[in-house]
């Protein structure tokens, strides 16, 4: 290398980092990916689905209570050793006992088919006439 080239070397100006000023508005926008939009939409829809389910379930109970409010029932008392099957056969001998038992359980809001002696059960009106 020649001496002329060595002497002509100039120092490069130092780069200064410019920090963004707090006065300038941010030009960045939030960009959601397809997956992000699906997650966001799902999270927004969950409260709506829960609300519709609560309203739907509570309205069904009110309708069932108002239908039974004005009805009159015939009651029968369970004898010792008597089962719902025997009771169904005695009040509706021509009907399928399983159907009669299901109606009695539904009408009396029984969770099981077990009954106790002395228990009073409402009988569906169409079987009470027989």
Automatic annotation (TrEMBL):
<feature type="transmembrane region" description="Helical">
    <location>
        <begin position="38"/>
        <end position="59"/>
    </location>
</feature>
<keyword id="KW-1133">Transmembrane helix</keyword>
<feature type="domain" description="LysM">
    <location>
        <begin position="74"/>
        <end position="123"/>
    </location>
</feature>
<keyword id="KW-0472">Membrane</keyword>
<dbReference type="Pfam" id="PF01476">
    <property type="entry name" value="LysM"/>
</dbReference>
<dbReference type="InterPro" id="IPR018392">
    <property type="entry name" value="LysM"/>
</dbReference>
<feature type="region of interest" description="Disordered">
    <location>
        <begin position="1"/>
        <end position="27"/>
    </location>
</feature>
<protein>
    <submittedName>
        <fullName>LysM domain-containing protein</fullName>
    </submittedName>
</protein>
<dbReference type="InterPro" id="IPR036779">
    <property type="entry name" value="LysM_dom_sf"/>
</dbReference>
<keyword id="KW-0812">Transmembrane</keyword>
